[in-house]
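Hey all, sorry for the wall of text incoming. These are the two entities for the joint prediction.
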Amino acid sequence: MTVMSYLGAIGAAQKEAMLADERVVIIGEDVEANVYGTTGGAGKSRASEGDFLQQFGRNRIRNTPISEEVIVGAAIGAAMTGLRPIVDLSYSSFLYMAMDQFVNQAAKNRYMFGGQASVPVVFRSAMFYGLNTGAHHSDRPYPMFMNVPGLKIVTPAFPSDAKGLLRTAVDTDDPVLVFEACVLWGSKEEVDEREYRIPFGVGRSVRTGTDATVIAVSGAVPEAVAAADALAPEGISVEVFDPRTLVPLDVEGILDAAARTGRVVVADPAHRTCGAAAEISALISEHVFDALRGPVRRVTTPDVQIPFSPALEKQLYPNRVAIADAVRASLGVAAPTTGRDGDDSTGPDGSGGTPPSGQDAAVATGAAR
Amino acid sequence: MTDPAPRSLPRDTQLEMQRRMLRIRRFDERASKMVKRGQIPGTVHTSIGQEAQVVGACMALGDTDFMTGNHRSHGHPIGKGAPLGPLMAELVGKSGGVCQGKGGSLHLADFAVGSLGESGIVGGSIPIAVGAGLSSKVLANDRVSLAFFGDGAANQGCLYEGMNMAGVWKLPVIFLCENNQYALSTPAHTVTSGVIADRGSGFGMPGVRVENGQDVLAVHEAVSAAVQRARAGDGPSLVEVITYRYNEHSEGLRLGVDYRNAQEKAQWLARDPIVLFREDLIRRGVAAAEELDALEADVLREVDDAVAFSDQSPYPELSVAFDDLYSDSRFAVHRFRDSSFGTLEAVR
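and here's what came out:
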């Protein structure tokens, strides 16, 4: 085992995949210079040992023009004809530039051509939310793609998952979109440096608990764990379940986790309407309604665009305070009157989380809509 | 008529050109009738009048070369050598269709002959062809890829993203503009600035305009040069072929305004590519009239057989609607047995 960051684990998985199969190529803007940190070697220099360009050459490390539509479309075409591309699209907000290729080609070609086409391509992108990049770089658009049958959607929340899920993605004969949350980039854990794969459609119980279940997606997972930690001294025991892949979705795992406690909060950094939380909530209501002891609560980003100012942006996303409040609400208990201002709600990006309360809390859960 | 194209291709190749042009013509004539009789659901877009442009390009490619197309979709796979039966069954929506009834006329594909798919989205398949060229380059397998697109798609941004990428990476791609002069009802010159072929030079590639796109040998010669260039590793080419569709944009379409004048139509009808090539073959002594008559009768039988193949093919079972969405599981969307759209019962 080795300590790896989230970003380092992605780089390790890419290197493994490149070494394992000559059909794997990396395509994207600025991948030669390792601008986004997943195609580099041991050091900062391009000439340093293990640098992807040096190791694999320009035939397989392809710096692209800024042309998202043809980057995506050409990767699909290459996948249909023998390559297994990993496409680095940098920011998730840029995926819209290639929407036609994702929806009308990647998702449909196997189906529409009666199974003749195989489309083994991975599209990686990073959700730069919470980093004051403004509305054009902060999107968490995975729910839009969940609405497109034919695509697989992966949202790793831990370095070990990022590595194992990316290897599975490269092995998969279908188009896979991997959404990486930048707030997780620096997170570290022990990761097996050997090759391993994590199957799609199998969620992970991150933390066990008996009083309430938080089903958390992507960057909301560590916030849910922090909320569970904060609630423990209050005598509230919270399970945190991370589906890890949204398509295919571990419905059985989610339903079991929900039914175990009967009090469910779904935390999802995407927008509220038709988000991942909406689908997960609906599935729970449809299938294990009898096991519920109260309504399923959602903690999401409200349906607004992302403002630039840190004073405005920070409290819009599901954070530990909003998640903890939602758990307390589902249990019908009040927040302790002391301790909240003193708790350490440092976010994973290193900045202080602003504990919203009262009216602010309503905004953070989207309930004010 | 001047005779600029070399007429020295092997006799068999020339006869095969005429056969494939006839296949397209008779197949599309039959499909048109079947649409009007309600035997083909929806509509189709015929290549009638454009056969020389299609076949001249397809036969400049090798069997293992790749090709993508558009909504005017039947000619491309036929031109590349696909058998007619599964194509016809696809138009009708039968299980024996080349796409098992899941694609229909707009989305024909026959991977066995390198046809990677037609596209109902104007220009949408151009990047796919660029990607096929990228595969060939990375895997060094000497395959060439050709994107068919119309004068309408010539104004889609993805064409220029594709030309730029193919140009800078020297990919073995041919961008083949089938300029039939109308984007549905819109005359190309009213929506197109400059000459399409000239746009090649902006991306550092040859841009050739085949003025006589009704001459299958002229088209073949121009595309062959592009194929040769691609195989030599010199990169992509743009070939614009001027042609004309004889039918309406789609079969059954009735517009209040006739956007093409009678004189123009008559002039192009007088330059029927199949009639022209037949006369040319006879004049040059490549084939006798009787031989070509027999070829025509042969093709009519092939089309009859294709319809018979379709007729005897059953419609697909409803469960097929859930097949081939993903590679590894019929119900990969939700792994739960009773999820809202995970079972057939749920959608009934």
